Amino acid sequence: MDRTNSRDRELRARAEAVIPGGMYGHQAVGLLPDDYPQFFEKGEGAHIWDADGRRYLDFMCAYGPNLFGYANPQIDAAYVRQLGLGDTLTGPTALMVEMAEAMVAMVSHAQWAMFCKNGTDATSMALTIARAHTRKKTVIRAKGAYHGAAAWCTPRPAGVIETDRAHQIFCDYNDVGSLEEAVRQAGDDLACIFAAPFKHDAFIDQAEPDLAYARRVREICDQTGALLIVDDVRAGLRLARDCSWSKIGVQPDLSTWGKCIANGHPISALAGADKARKAASAIYVTGSFWYQAAPMAAGLETLRLVRDTDYLERITALGQRLRDGLAERAKAAGFSLRQTGPVTMPLFLFDDDPDLRKGFCFSSEMLARGVYVHPWHNMFLCAAMTEQDIDGALDAAEGAFGVLKRNVGDLAPVEKLAFLSAGAR
Ligand code: PMP
After folding, report:
1. pTM
2. 3-state SS string over 334-357?
3. Which residue owns the Cα nearest ligand 1 atom 13?
4. Which of the listed residues 26, 120, 347 should we mutate to test ligand 1's pocket, taking the one with most ligand atoms within 8 A of CB?
5. I need a surface site. Which of 114, 117, 163, 204 has the fewest CB within 10 A?
6. What is the CATH number of domain 7-63+310-424?
C-alpha cells in the first residue's frame, strides 16, 4: 500500500521532531511491515480507522483491551455518567469497593483486590508483596516472558542497571527440570514464581501450559512459602471468567489483571489470596490516578457483561472458525501455516520463514484487504466480531495467500528482523 503523502507519514514526520524515536513501546510500528499505519483516528466495534480514514477489521484489539468492542455503548455510557459525577477526587468512590467485590466474586483464588493503572503496576506490586510476605528476595520467571516495562522486567537493556535486575533467576517455561534447577539456585531465598497463563512470547509459537509444570510450580510454592503469581494481564477473560489457570485446576496466590478488565478504560488490578493480605496492606503503593472512578464504572459494566453474556463462548467459536478456515485456505494455497495458542488469542507463523518475509507479505496483503493482523505477536478476538467479519477475513486471506504464492520466490529479506535469523528466536 502506497503511503507516500499520507496523513500517517505526515504525522510520523512531526512525531520524529517531538516524540523520542517518533513512537515508543509496544505500539511503535517500527518492526511491522512498512505499510502498517502508526496513527489511528477512531475505533467502533471490531473495527479501527487509520489516520487516513482506512477501515480495518482489527485482530489486535488494542493489544488486548478491546474485549466487547471499541466504543461499546453500555460500557462507555457507564464511564461517561461517572465522568459527569466525578472521576479523580480527593478519595475513591463506592465504585472501588464494588469493583473489588466484583473481582473477588469472579476470581476464585482471590479474597481481595487492589487497583492501579497498567499491567506493569500490577506485576511490580505483586513482586513487592511477595517480598514483603516472605521477607525473601529471589524471583523466578520464565525466559522471554513479558511482565511489563519497569526496570526489573523491561525487555530492553538501555538504562537498566545490574541492581535493577538483581535476585532474578530465569527458567524455561513448561520445563520442570529447568524450574527445579532455578529453585535450587534460589536456595532459601525464594520470594515468588511468576507464570504466564500460557507461553505467549513474541516471534515464536505459543504453547499451552503443561499441567505437570503448573502443578510443580504450585507444589514448590507450597513447600517453600513463596507466592505463585499468574500474570493474566494479557490473557485474562479470554480463556476463562476466572484466573486463566483455573482451567487447569491450579490456583495462584496472586493474579495480575489489566488491559480488557474495563474494555480499554485505564484500570488494572492485582487479586490475591488471604495469605498475602497482610503484606499487601503493609506495602506503600499508590498513584494520582489509581482511584479514578470513571474507569471503575466502566470496569463494573465490563465485568457484568463477562458474567451475564455468552461473550466467551462466542469469541471461542469465532476463533475456531478463523483457525479452521485459515488452515483450509493455507493448505489449498500450498502453505504450511502454524496457528498456535488459544483460538481467542491466535498467532500465525509460516514454516520455513526465518526472517518472517512470508509473514510480512501475508500481513501486508491482509492489511491491503482491510484486515489488521500481526506477523509476530499474538492477536486477540473480541465479542464485537461476527461470523461475517471472520468470513470476510478468510476471503482476504485467500487473496493474500494467492499473492504470496505468486511472489514467494522473490520476497526481499526483512532487514529489520534480521536479528531473528541470527538466532535470537
Ligand atoms: N504482563 C503481560 C503478560 C503483558 O502482556 C503486559 C502488556 N503487554 C504487561 C504485563 C504489562 O502491561 P502494561 O503494558 O499495561 O503495563
Report:
1. 0.97
2. CCCEEEECCCCCCEEEECCCCCCH
3. 119
4. 120
5. 163
6. 3.90.1150.10
